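Many introductory courses stop at the sequence. We go one step further.
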Amino acid sequence: MPDGLKIGNLAISPPVVLAPMAGVTNVPFRELCRRFGAGLYVSEMLGARAIVEEDERTLHLASFGPNESTKSIQLYATDPAAAAGAVERLIDLKGVHHVDFNFGCPAPKVTRHGGGAVLPYRHRLYGEIVSAAVKAAGAVPITVKFRMGIDDDHLTYIQAGRIAEDAGAAAVALHARTAEQLYSGQARWPAIGELKQAVTTIPVLGNGDVFEYADAEKMMAETGCDGVVVGRGCLGRPWLFRELAEGFAGLPMSRPPHLAEVVKIMVEHAQLLVDWFDEHRGIRSFRKHTSWYLKGYTVGRDVRTGLHAIETVDDIRAMFDGIDLAQPFPAEAASMPRGHTHGPRPVKVPYGYLEDPEAMGPLNAAAAVAVSGG
């Protein structure tokens, strides 16, 4: 198994990338995950147009913590000019070292305007966006993430990979589901292998259903991909990055944390959020993480419900009074569903969008609105 990954001028070891997730992969969560293991940690998805217009909220989301030696950001774009302008500003204003472009978002608010996971169907426009970003970036590597396609009748991943490769992208990543699948069923890893066979000069990363090191090892062995992108598998389990680092290094695996250790991690996570935002916003942001952290543990409904109403970091500790904190991590919890599980669902696309894949536009103007943090 390879122990590292080269994306342009970046050396990433182990070959693991944190998938951007709206409202999750902010500075505090990235900091917490980084404490457990190395890899590439990417920001939440930000709107290219909002970056160009220097929207205050978006620029704050484009911030980095003091320990982020590699500054990595994901962008959403629907036109070449905005893509190029955003890349230039991120390099100038934020000193970013890597920019990833999201062409895999299946959210209706994005696809119904011709963006996200449906945009590669307009392959000329897609190619122009990637080319413009690469030219604007100079030595900063540009990567591209996409899905298999809109649905099984409109698969685009092989063409999207080749276009990105020809345009100068430093790597591509495939979430091995269609937009129609959303997050349902199983990721179709053979598609990652097909993409690896088609894209031969840059790294190909695989995404979808990596919940444990064994999954990452199996994906890479079966598909030949150069690295893995981890999304929902790390929700409530930031120590997954320790497991991945140990596995790729051939080291003995640390045991998963007991509940007492999980509670300590929860408190640390909440405090990081409070320090980054403020107590009110930080705690509200943390509440959604509580159910992920407690997957499989026996804590009772009152605790689970109460954690969704906490107001302070101390409230977290208080919720576990009288709970057996010696409980080991339940092995079956590693692969329990976390985050989005919905789908399949028909994909919303603009009227007439599928009639001409050669079309360059114009897209609905709403496609260029700020889509920051999801």
